[in-house]
Design brief:
With 232 residues, the protein is α/β, with parallel strands linked by helices. It has a single domain, classed as Glutaredoxin (3-Layer(aba) Sandwich), CATH 3.40.30.80. Helices cover 42% and strands 19% of the residues. It is built from nine helices and eight strands. The chain has an eight-stranded mixed β-sheet with strand order 2-1-3-4-6-5-7-8. A hairpin with a 4-residue loop joins β3 and β4. α5 packs parallel to α7 and α6 crosses α7. The protein starts with 7 loop residues before the first helix and ends with a helix.
């Protein structure tokens, strides 16, 4: 795919290399997946400098998971516009999981791949890693809440912030009304969104369009922020 205008040092962060070491690590990480995980990958045949590597990453994850546990659906904007519209996807690449409540807008590259794989594992085991108190409170939230987590590939703290938001959203889907959406947004691929939130360091966590955390929140802090937003 054409990379005109992309600095080489930025492009390098998004190159996925399917090495024996990478595949061994993925197989080890995904070995406990028992339930089927559906992944929807939205890409473009046109200008999209990370679409190919994102597809290669997701394909490698499917290959490394226990047989048949990752169901991958690949959509191309030029051919599947109706599905893009139905799933409310307007950027590529986008990855949708968790029955629609978990979205990666941009490639989960670099450090972010860790949180992405862990999210898949937790969906595939339904072990969300959250306290019962958190799950019960999240299940009570009926108001629509969108969490945006702004990340970059080198950030060591971003995977936890993204993973935590993902688990809150999935807990809402499993046990509540499914009213919470988690969107993990890669800043280099989506600079307009990063600019909108005034991002100068990552991770940034925004709730319904308002920046709430700069840096990764704890489970208790994120729960309190969501409860406050739901009551506002």
């Amino acid at each position: 795919m054409e990379d005109i205008g992309i600095d080489p040092w930025i492009r390098e962060m998004f190159v996925f290399r399917k090495t024996p070491e990478t595949m061994r690590a993925l197989r080890e990480a995904l070995r406990d997946v028992r339930k089927e995980v559906n992944i929807w990958l939205f890409t473009s045949a046109g200008k999209c400098w990370t679409c190919r590597d994102t597809e290669e990453l997701v394909e490698a994850i499917r290959e490394a998971a226990p047989p048949g546990k990752i169901k991958l659906y690949k959509l191309i904007r030029e051919k599947d516009r109706d599905v893009f519209k139905f799933m409310n996807v307007d950027r590529v690449p986008t990855i949708v999981m968790g029955n629609g409540v978990i979205r990666y807008i941009g490639m989960p590259a670099g450090e972010e791949m860790k949180g992405f794989v862990e999210t898949i594992v937790r969906i595939g085991t339904e072990d969300l890693g959250l306290s019962k108190t958190t799950i019960d409170r999240v299940a009570e939230i009926e108001e629509k809440i969108v969490m945006d987590v702004i990340v970059t590939p080198p950030c060591p703290y971003c995977p936890y912030a993204a993973f935590l938001a993902n688990m809150f959203a999935y807990a809402s889907k499993l046990y509540g009304k499914g009213s919470i959406i988690s969107r993990v947004i890669e800043a280099f691929e989506n600079p307009d969104i990063a600019d909108y939130y005034g991002v100068t360091t990552v991770p940034v966590v925004a709730i319904n369009g308002k920046v709430v955390f700069v840096g990764p929140p704890t489970e208790e802090q994120l729960l309190l922020a969501l409860v406050r937003e739901a009551g506002s």
